[in-house]
Write a structure and sequence with these properties.
This protein is an all-alpha fold and about 280 residues long. Helix content is about 70%, strand content about 0%. It comes from Pandoraea aquatica.
Length: about 280
């Protein structure tokens, strides 16, 4: 998909085009909840379904005998999540541990989409003849702030839910007005403000951390892809561009695998930590 018909995009146009979502309408304000990024929605749901299918296949093929490689890998992942949830959450983990496992697998799959060639989605869309309908497409949901903040808001809802469930409505409200400075009527307003700021900061930082890392990774892949643009400046430049493109792209892709898994692990751990804090009394 070119920026304009018959016009080869310059580097700035190329990057801007690849960083624009397929939205339901044009956004004119900083916050507009009426706009839907269809590509983020599609790939988020697709990776969620794929993650559920992978875990379902592992459970379906589980055996008490010698496990295969796939079952052994899933069992190691489940044991890791269970150990982390046991050490962080002091309470019933019947829902929380599977939730943490789902978060890790889901975010890891969404992050892994960044390892696909940056121009592959547009090529596929062009091959099937939908380039006039799908004018923009971003394949990485976690490189869209709307996607990561959506996950963070979900964690916030769980934090509030467990705060009410474990401490009761009265206990939670008492904590909001008395922690961290103590139960004194002159400190009720500062305590409440600090607790509200804490909930907001946890939510924003959780979403911004994942978004920032994945957005930066996506941008680096685009910059590496632009190295191919110097191929047209002669044979020497062509060889230089090809070598630089392949070497830089391969090196960054290998390093980015660590970022993909690390960010999924951090998202899972912070989810456990925040829900675990909702179980603790101040």
């Amino acid at each position: 998909m070119s920026v304009e018909a018959g016009h080869a995009p310059n580097p700035s146009e190329y990057i801007s085009h690849h960083l624009q979502n397929l939205a339901s309408s044009t956004q004119t304000s900083i916050v507009d909840f009426s706009i839907i990024n269809w590509d983020t929605m599609f790939w988020s749901i697709a990776m969620g379904v794929l993650g559920c299918f992978i875990l379902w296949m592992a459970a379906r093929k589980a055996t008490s005998g010698v496990p295969g490689r796939f079952q052994a890998a899933v069992e190691m992942l489940v044991e890791m999540v269970e150990d982390q949830s046991k050490s962080i959450v002091h309470g019933n983990r019947a829902f929380i541990a599977p939730l943490a496992l789902t978060v890790f697998v889901w975010v890891a799959l969404m992050n892994s989409l960044d390892l696909l060639p940056v121009d592959l989605p547009s090529k596929v869309i062009g091959w099937v003849g939908l380039d006039s309908i799908i004018t923009h497409h971003r394949i990485v949901p976690t490189a869209d702030l709307n996607g990561t903040l959506g996950i963070a808001v979900g964690v916030l809802i769980l934090m509030l839910y467990y705060s009410f469930k474990i401490k009761g409505a009265g206990g939670f409200m008492h904590e909001l007005f008395t922690a961290p400075f103590g139960n004194h009527f002159l400190l009720w307003i500062p305590n409440l403000l600090l607790n509200i700021i804490e909930f907001c900061a946890k939510t924003v930082s959780l979403g911004m951390r994942l978004f920032g890392n994945m957005y930066a990774g996506e941008l680096v892949f685009l910059l590496i892809a632009l190295l191919g643009g110097i191929w047209s400046f002669g044979a020497d430049a062509s060889v230089l561009g090809f070598v630089g493109h392949v070497i830089a792209g391969t090196a960054w892709a290998i390093f980015h695998i660590l970022i993909v898994l690390l960010q999924a692990f951090i998202m899972m751990m912070l989810t456990l930590v925040y829900i675990g804090q909702a179980h603790d009394h101040h």
